[in-house]
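User: For my dataset I need records formatted as: sequence, then structure tokens, nothing else. Please produce one.
Assistant:
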Amino acid sequence: MLKSVRAKVVLLRTAILAVMLLFFGLALHRQASHGLEAVLDNTLRCQAEYAAYVLHGGEGGGEIAELGEHIVAHRDLPRDRKLIRILNAQGDVLFESGPSNFKQVNGMAPAAKAVRSGELVYETVATGRNSMRLISLPAVDQEHIQHVVQVGTSLEANQHQLWKFSRILFLCGLAILTLVTAGGWWITGAALRPVRMMVGTAKRIGTTDTGDRLEVPDSRDELEELARTFNDMIDRLESASKQMRSFTAYASHQLRTPLTIMKGEIEVALRKPRSAQEQDRVLQSALEEINLMSKIVNDLLTLARADSGEVVLETKPVDLNDVIQGAVSHRRVLAEMHGCSLAVNSSRGHRVWADRDRLVELIENLLDNAIKYTPSGEKITLDLRRDGKGFLISVTDTGTGIASDELDKIFERFYRGKNSQTQRIRGSGLGLSICKWITEAHGGHIRVVSRIGQGSTFSVWLPSLEAASQIAAR
């Protein structure tokens, strides 16, 4: 039980409250003790002053014994509860009244101290099992100390009152601790109930079944934020799990196809002697399949490294016209092989903060995609222009186009279009995903507009060099 958060919170709160109550109780006990002592001292002082007043002509007159009896007879000085003693300046006892155990109290030292200082002296002295509060008041006659009056009483009554007070404090503190512990246990349990529900839901969620989600409490506190964060994490895990399954299926399918083709052609070629021309054809076919597998593996590696944050962009000021001209020079021959024309509309001076090699890869992927799906005799146009605080690179083809229900899916990894021509064209299915990653890594975005039978336009927006510098300075 002590391992639960609920128990730890309640025990910690109870311990803190117990320490606070202990210090508060000690302070109250000390204050009560001082208060009772002050009241007792004041009573004894008043009685001693009355005795000194009687001794030196205040009431009555005569011998010390008679004066002492007169003092004891006063209603405020009951003889069965107090010690009354009159001494001369030399410390000799002239009169003494009180219980026998009180008379055994040695008051010579405080009496001598009172004579020396000429002031009232307070002392707490032992009387066996209990203690006595004793005051010694010098009685002055004609500016000379003639007598010392000592009045004392047992502290047993005060100690009994303090004991009762301490017991009340203890019982009240125990009651407070009990109520706070019980209330804290209930409140903490109610507060942690959503957490227990989250734990139960989390236990039901498996690695393959991630359909359940935590119930988000409408509490507008940390628990609501925790539930939303946990659900977001499950969404990411579900997405990662789907990607992993898609990757496994895709990789096994895409890599198995060229391997099967190569295996079949090589087996056929080995069955009987072939001419040099036939061997060249087999080797050329195998090389094409190897190049396709190499591209698939490289694309997968690029995205895997991007997901793990291992790809570091080597950014610097780059002129987009130079990037475009470099990419077009690499793809113009490929376009001509497919019977397509490639037109470029760009000019110098459009500078961005970017990794040049990655931008070249981005534009080459877009051109590859356009060349694959554009029929022979059609035209592909690449256009560069300023757009707000950045630049817009557009690649437009007059190919087969993309269905509207597929536009939001074509940037997903491994997604291939459903139309028959798309299925016939071999590819990695990762090119547009890499384009999207490169664009967003440079602070831009990529869009597509397409119509079936009319072609498609892929537009990449990148922030200008000035805009990128302003964003970095924030």
